[in-house]
Amino acid sequence: MDMYWDCANGISGDMTLAALAHLGVDFSPLAERLAQAGVACVIECREENRAGGPGFCADVRWREEEQPLRHPADIAAIFRRVDVAERVRGRALAVLDALAQAEAHAHRIPVEQVHFHEVGAVDTLVDILGVCWGLEELGVERVTASSLPWFGGSIECAHGRIPLPAPATACLMQGKPVRPSGAQTELVTPTGAALVHALVDDFAEGPQGRLGRLGTGYGSRPAPAGLRIWEVRETPADTQAHGGREEVCQLECHLDHLSGEELGQAIEALAAAPAVLDVLWLAGTGKKNRPSGALRVLCLPAAQEEALRLVFRHTHSLGVRIQRLERVVLPRTAATVSCDGERMPAKRYGLEGCTYVRAEADALGRHAAGRGLGMPALRFAADARHTVTEEAK
Fold this sequence. Notes:
The protein is an alpha+beta fold and 393 residues long.
């Protein structure tokens, strides 16, 4: 699954954490694993409703009144100790390295001397690891983001009053697309900029694909809007071209009341419908020893209602079961192939590093009928010629 980060109103570590919580990520198992690694903390996510709509806020609390200053190596050591998936660990270390390098550049010191004070050692640690944990929990493979808002003003920190964006943030924003916002307050924090730098694969002024759920994360300031992140799934055309995983719906009903003619017409009508991907009839014996069977209709989630309407129309079934399934498809594109001296439409697909081309069955059938042959005659003849050619080589 892909994810789109709408950063129009800014981004920070806690905003990203909160948006992922709004999408349903449970961070309590991560808190337990952090405690086992020596960092006892509570990750509290609560509902928040502002002008930007319903969302979540996230707070990180710890037991000790004061936390020690932690250098990047200290936090990296915790990331290596905590029991998380390797991709979570790798992503977290990449974000930490980006933040540490930016802080070192801003203060003109070696990376080893960087210590986290303004951003807070525990806050930084949990925000970074928590965001990477959340991406893994949701199965996110790719992150796209909007341009970042440019903002001005100044802020008080341990080094005195500094201009905004803060030096570390400004360093991390280099090379990223920005747009003016007119804001005179901090919209992008150093941690937020590091998350964008290390985790965002590309920038676009909007998501592309089929929109899924929306998660909104609000920060500690009472800003009316927050970070919005969208789940994005590929369109059917994208999935076919590149291959991968997609959701499909399976509609199923048992039929024992249709005549053979009615059943045949129902299957034919469903198979011809644009909303339907595939139709399968499984013959069997039903209740009271009646000849019966299971009708299965496959469709995309967006076409579920139309496919359901067609099943009821053509079968008069009194009930249809619906399942959401995941399927994996091979990358495939339209092609043409020469068969028996005629060019005809085909599918080109990839499997285990090889490319195959398969003629469309309808085209083969029409050509075979035109020659007074059955379809197997064309296919077997083509296979025989192919075998002879290979042996001649």
